[in-house]
Amino acid sequence: MKSKQAKPKKNSLISALLVSTTMIVPAVSGAKTAVAQTEVAQSTYSFDISVNSIADGVAQIGAVSGWRIAYSIDLPEIEGARIINGNMSVPAAIDILLRGTGLEYRETGENSLILTDPAAQGSHSDNAVTDPVLIETADAQTDLPPAYAGGQVATGGRLGMLGNTDIMDAPVSITSYTSEKIADQQAETIADVLQNDPSVRAPNAETANLDTYQIRGFGVNLFNTGEVSFNGAYGVAPTYRVQSGMAERIEVVKGPNALLNGMSPTGAVGGAINIVPKRAGAKDLNRVSADYGRGAQAGGDLDVSRRFGANDEFGVRFNGGYSNGDTYLDRQTKETSLGALALDYEGDRFRASVDLIDQRENLNAPAREFRINSGVTMPDAPDGSTNAIQSWEWSDAVDRSGLVQAEYDALDNITVFGSFGGGRTELDRLFGTPTITNAEGDYNDAGLSYRRFQTDRWSVSGGIRGEFQAAEITHKTSFEATRYEDVLRQGISNAGVTPSANIYTTADVAPVAVNAPSVKPKTSESELTGFALADTMGFWDEQVLVTLGARHQSIAVNSYSNGAISSSYDDSVVTPMAGVVVKPTENVSVYANYIEGLSQGDIAPPSAANAGQAMSPYVAKQFETGVKLDFGTIGGSIAAFQITQQDGDTDPDTNVFSADNEQRNRGIEVNVFGEVTPNVRLLGGVMFLNSEISKAADPDDKGKRPVGTPDMQINLTGEWDTPFAKGLTLSGTVTHTSEQFVDTANTQDIPDWTTLDLGLRYKTSIDNTPITVRATIQNVTDEKYWSGVNQWRFISLGAPRTALLSITADF
Q1: Which helix (H) or strand (E) covers residue 20, if one does?
Q2: What's the rounded Cα separation, in Å, for the pair 758 and 19?
Q3: Closest CA to 539 of 580, 597, 498, 482
Q4: Residue-wise pLDDT tens digits, 365-415
Q5: Number of CB atoms found within 10 A of residue 43's CB
Q6: How far apart are CA 426 and CA 238, in angstroms?
Q7: How far apart, in Å, do the first and last CA atoms of the chain sit?
Q8: Smallest Cα–Cα separation from 359: which of 264, 458, 425?
Q9: Could you tell me if 252 and 271 are in contact, meaning their C-beta atoms sit under 8 angstroms apart?
Q10: Do residues 303 and 359 lie in contact, with contact meaning Cβ atoms separated by under 8 Å?
Q11: Residues in Cβ contact with 505 at an 8 Å cutoff, skipping those fewer than 6 apart
Q12: CA separation for the pair 623, 58 (Å, rounded)
């Protein structure tokens, strides 16, 4: 048993919007449009470059300096080599590169330029850019879609077996957050980043021992097996929580996607989350960060990469991190570590990579979500630093995993690919679940137990993709076979007593002795096998794209009790997809899709008249249509969707368990991203959600709103590069979530809430060493609120006012 005493710490919609407005409005009104070659103080870099094309020069200048250098024009050829040698600013280097070409440039923000062609645009000061902006960055991977203007999101992302796809060509909704956004947000986990999307919420507290997600109103559960893929493969990312230090991109595809990614380990249907790991870029990288905050947590990160070989074909990148100290939560201390090693090879036809991950998290007094007894009025939320878990309760998690991937261009238009990976997660913990028993906030620590979990998992995939043209129709065809397996072991020792206290006082409770389980018997094993074929056809110079495909998915699950199989499940189903994209202009893309999701059907419980009967796999169905806009420096989308998901329940009259329940979520999403002006960036949007139990075995449930599904979610982040201090950027984020029901009967709820975060970052250079200082205050108004309800009716407490500070240096 562990025990460590931590010192207690104390840390309105209208007020939040007022503060946000006072920051953003002056930013927009005071921002001046940049003209080409503005004379400003610039950091200098040591260049030693010889190139034979402007494109190569752009890439190498960006690699040396870390600047984003964009172009949306045809680049002319140059005669001979352009030599850029010596210490100079990026604009000075660009001047040399463009000399005699007639091209010019203008600044589009901090450390970013765009090349322009006055002859094509009509005038040197023309700021309109109608084509998608292509951005080269120092850390960019050659196979990734480039970052969009502003650098916060990418121009595309991975659509499972369809591979990387531009957002304007994708027949589904996808957002890919960049490593720049992750760093500027000072994100500790991927959950921090994903909550920038108005359709996503992570209801579990960051001070708990696991993350869960809600996407389009449906739960995504990381419990035991995990739902996050790593470079497209399940079973590799850490199970309970994923630290952000290993991520080059964090991608979310919204809606069911059984064809694209295969059935996820626990059958999530709201969306799919994928981590794109970091790779060594063209520029040697030596990056060191130190941070302090989230209470009294201190830590640091290391990011180092190199390329080797005659043609830089071998790459190695290591990301390490460590933090420790008291959090903002009473009694809690937290220790985390991360080691992620990425090796890659890039040849003319053969490419391969190896990823190794070691992630650990130790928590004393880990936060736990609350339960509430039926019929009890939900009490007001206490202060966000309140902790109902005692200092003698704890959680230790260790994740180790690896992934090998390779692909070979058998012909110029045919690529064979494959991967093999897996991991082991070990979680030991001693805590219970605070259950509220009355409106005054009294609770008991129900289910106090010492548990030991071990999850072993592995996955393998292989396939072939090709591109060809027939009868003036282009085809991008993919075939993929996947296999995923996991084994869960769990040992439990229950406490003999149930401690109790009150959520507003959380008085210290005497330690309860619970012996560690002596064994970890196998409790379940799963096997998921899939075969999928898809083809994207392009008509009329790919102004119309049609995607058709289907996946045959098999599900086999055994549950164990006392070493013997207690229940078994084995079934299969074919899930189709149809999508269409029409691009009437270069700036507009209209899309629609029908796609299905898949999860294991239930087995009728022992109390049912048909006990032991297995339901067929539950199928979720989505219809979606929308419009995507891309004006070069700013883009957005509007989408309307309907998702229906089967579920099982017992008929109260016949006592027969069936899959006759159905949840139906209808929604509208509006998103915006990019640069409003060269010095102002926006990211965010709103989701309106109409959800209901549309079919129910129990007539009393029909028409009710499902647990944890708010009817509106809003996110808006604004950034302003100040004109009065070069390198200084101010930011503000408003987050709003409306009322959510806690029970199926819709008699218990948590109220809506709004928070405001304010931040700044300052970029400078000391002795030619780029330095970035970042500071953030989260929940500036110190709102007290319940942040969310997950699908198991667990209620999370929102965080109090919290400060974060970090400094990063590139050597």
Answers
A1: helix 13-30
A2: 9
A3: 580
A4: 999 999 999 999 999 999 999 999 999 999 999 999 999 999 999 999 999
A5: 20
A6: 10
A7: 44
A8: 425
A9: yes
A10: no
A11: none
A12: 42
| Number of neighbouring beta carbons within 10 Å of residue 18 | 12
Q: Where are the beta strands (DSSP E) in 471-517?
A: 473-494, 500-502
Predicted pLDDT at 732: 98
Residue type, position 120, single letter: A
- Using DSSP's 3-state secondary structure scheme, residue 531 falls into strand
The residues, any chain, with a CB within 8 Å of residue 149's CB and separated by 6 or more, are 70, 108, 133, 135, 632, 633, 634, 674, 675
**Tokens coding 497:** 């007593």
pLDDT band (50, 70, 90) for residue 64:
confident
Residues 6+ apart with CB under 8 A from 757: 732, 733, 735, 776, 777, 778, 779, 780
Contact of 720 with 695, CB cutoff 8 Å:
no
pLDDT (0 to 100) of residue 589: 97
Query: If we measure between CA atoms, which residue out of 86, 150, 84, 91 comes closest to residue 115?
Result: 91
pLDDT confidence tier of residue 99, bands split at 50, 70 and 90: confident
Q: What are the b/e assignments for 758-774, b being 16+ CB within 10 Å?
A: bbbbbbeeeeeebbbbb
Q: Is the pTM of this model over 0.90?
A: no
Q: Which residues pair with 104 in a beta bridge?
A: 116
Under DSSP, the state recorded for 799 is P
DSSP string for 557-605: EEEEETTEEEEEEEEEEEEEEEEEEEEEETTEEEEEEEEEEEEPPPB--
Q: Are 795 and 750 in contact (CB under 8 A)?
A: yes
| pLDDT tens column, 523-543 | 999 999 999 999 999 999 999
Per the structure block, which two tokens stand in for 290? 């130190």
Output the six-digit token pair for 504.
């507003």
Q: At what angle do helices 90-98 and 54-65 cross, to 10 degrees?
A: 170
Q: How many CB atoms lie within 10 A of CB 81?
A: 11
d(CA 699, CA 314): 63
Cβ atoms of 555 and 600 closer than 8 Å: yes
Torsion of CA 374, 379, 382, 387, to 10 degrees: -20
Q: Which residue ranges form the domains of the chain, and what is each CATH number?
A: 34-129 (3.55.50.30), 276-370+388-436+444-490+509-810 (2.40.170.20)
Beta bridge partners of 560: 565
Residues 6 or more apart in contact with residue 80 via CB below 8 angstroms: 52
Residue 203 tokens read as 């209801």
Residue in 132, 133, 116, 135 with CA at minimum distance from that of residue 124: 116
